[in-house]
Amino acid sequence: MASDMASSTLPWLTLAIFVPIIAGLFVLLLGRDDNPGPARALSLVGAVAGFLVTIPLYLGFDSSTAAMQFVEKASWIEAFAVNYHLGVDGISLWFVLLTAFITIIVVMAGWEVITSRVSQYMAAFLILSGLMVGVFASLDGMLFYVFFEATLIPMYLIVGVWGGPNRVYAAFKFFLYTLMGSLLTLVAFIYLWHASGGSFDIQTWHTLPLGYTPQILIFLALFAAFAVKVPMWPVHTWLPDAHVEAPTGGSVVLAAIMLKLGAYGFLRFSLPIAPDASHSLAGIIIALSLIAVIYIGLVAIVQDDMKKLVAYSSVAHMGFVTLGFFLFNTAGVEGAIVQMISHGFVSGAMFLCIGVLYDRLHSRRIADYGGVVNVMPRFVTFFVLFSMANAGLPATSGFVGEFMVIMGAVEYNFWIGLLAATALILGASYSLWMVKRVAYGEITNPHVAEMQDLSGREFLIMGIMAIAVLYMGIHPKPFTDVMHVSVEALLQHVSISKL
Prior knowledge:
By secondary structure, this protein is mainly alpha-helical. It is built from 22 helices and two strands. Strands 1-2 form a two-stranded antiparallel sheet. A hairpin with a 4-residue loop joins β1 (69-77) and β2. α8 (152-162) packs antiparallel against α9 and α13 packs parallel to α15 (306-325). Residues 1-8 have low confidence and may be disordered.
């Protein structure tokens, strides 16, 4: 009843989508480069307002049902039965909240650092935030596709305009990889529209009695888009380039939210629409996931660029996510979703830390640092905490999801669980070795000796992220309680053959 009451008062999901988008348009119209103060202030107000309108979704959510809640539906393109159809369940709710939360962090992080085209920079993130919420809230296939593709445009601009020296190359590579993968998805959606008698309703698609061959083809078509977005090995090569060239805020959003769009696609489309194909091809997905976890973990160890190291660690951590989905047990799927949320906090925090160092020394090379703890003790406290979380230390959010996925993997097959567990060793290797070389030892670079510790704004950002990482690590129950019934319903659905 709580959700019915909440959904009957205000269209919360529409507000969650359009408050940041409208705020972004206002920032774009009112912002001036000669006086960026109002643009910054307005963008922060827009980001906070965007987060505040997501809170009633959590407060009014009924976690005892797997049904979609806060549902809104209106006709959009009548000729093709395309509807503006929104709703959230226990799986998608957290990603709506995470997107709005990370947007505030990103606006605060770029407050002083971004000095050119400030209004455009802030507006791009606000508009991107609304579009990503739209992806997680869509219950219409065409609406999902429109939001899914539209997210490429602001991120392309963020990397291409405010990025590093090779930003144009990285932006094009990101755009082409993700766009090419998505074209097959459009073909699959059109087929499903035809097979369902002219409906783009995603929940109708879940109940279609598809044959084995169509399921395989649909699964592969969807896989093309979602695997690139995650990104899974071997279609991950765009991610390190995009991360290295992107400004700090771009890296944070890319790691914290955009990678989750692909993983979310598996849960909302691939598994429920093509369950028999999912079971048949699970071995291949598990193998690709383990390669990402182990091989990419080894690749991360040899990186000399901090951003590249964390980018490769993101690929390894997202390998845990896809592994968990295709174990077809509660621990695996819930662990994978928890890992997605945790990765949003931890990887976002890691890129913020690297951004703090880069703002002071204008270098991402590990070799240019050393002894940072001597001049920035407050920063190193946070840096060590987030690196430990990245390695999966118990009592941090990084541990919870990985532990649950490993438990699910052992339940599925002991040897798969054993291989997955090596990620904890590899994670500790690359995370702690980076910390050792950057933060500890003697100061060998005179420029490091001149570095200033965290400002009040930076300390606030780091503190908020630290609270999120520790709270989720110590008390994950609120997160798992919300998703449990929806995950059980999904697994029950996937276990029933449509043949």
